[in-house]
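Structure in, sequence out. Go:
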C-alpha cells in the first residue's frame, strides 16, 4: 500500500513504482547501560535509533546528544537483536543484546522488562526499515533525500530507563537556527 501524495511522487518519481513501502518507525532515544566489550562493566550511555539515517548512535552522556556520538553503527549491519532466553534480570536490570557484522556483539541493560522489550522491538523495526530503503537505493537515486525529508516530521520516542516511561512527541519540521 503506497501512502504517498502526488507532490511527493512528482519530487521522488521512484515512489510511483514502489507498492510495498513500510510504515516509517519512530526515531527512538533514551538511556541504557552498556557492557564493555572486553570487561563486563556496565556504564550509563545515551542511545539513539534513527531509521531515516539508518544509524544507531551511542553517546557517553545525554549532554553529548545529538552532536557528539562516540559510536555510530549502520542499522543494516545489525543481524540479530534479542532478549536472551531465559530472561536475565540481574536484580531490577533487564538485558538485551544484538550482533552485527564484523563479529560485534553488544550487551545492554535497562531497569524494566517493558523498556527492554521496547528497545528490542524498536531496534528490529528500524533495522528492517533501513534494509528496505538500502535495497531501494540500489535501484533508484534520491532515496536519501526522501528519507531526510521524512525525518523532520515523524514521531520520536524517548525511553526513560529509570521511570520506564515512553514519552512520545512529534519532532519539529526544522531546527530553529536563530535560537
Amino acid at each position: 500500500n503506497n501512502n504517498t501524495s502526488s507532490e511527493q511522487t512528482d519530487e521522488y518519481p521512484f515512489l510511483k513504482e514502489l507498492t510495498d513501502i513500510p510504515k516509517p518507525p519512530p526515531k527512538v532515544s533514551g538511556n541504557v547501560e552498556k557492557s564493555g566489550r572486553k570487561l563486563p562493566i556496565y556504564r550509563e550511555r545515551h542511545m539513539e535509533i534513527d531509521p531515516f539515517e539508518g544509524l544507531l548512535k551511542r553517546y557517553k552522556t545525554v549532554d553529548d546528544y545529538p552532536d557528539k556520538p562516540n559510536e555510530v553503527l549502520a542499522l543494516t549491519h545489525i543481524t540479530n537483536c534479542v532478549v536472551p532466553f531465559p530472561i536475565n534480570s540481574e536484580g531490577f536490570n533487564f538485558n538485551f543484546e544484538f550482533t552485527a557484522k564484523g563479529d560485534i556483539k553488544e550487551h545492554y541493560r535497562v531497569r524494566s522488562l517493558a523498556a527492554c522489550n521496547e528497545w528490542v522491538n524498536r531496534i528490529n523495526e528500524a533495522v528492517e526499515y533501513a534494509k528496505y530503503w538500502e535495497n531501494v537505493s540500489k535501484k533508484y537515486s534520491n532515496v536519501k533525500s526522501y528519507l531526510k525529508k521524512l525525518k523532520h516530521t515523524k514521531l520520536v520516542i524517548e525511553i526513560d530507563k529509570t521511570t520506564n516511561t515512553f514519552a512520545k512527541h512529534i519532532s519539529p519540521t526544522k531546527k530553529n537556527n536563530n535560537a
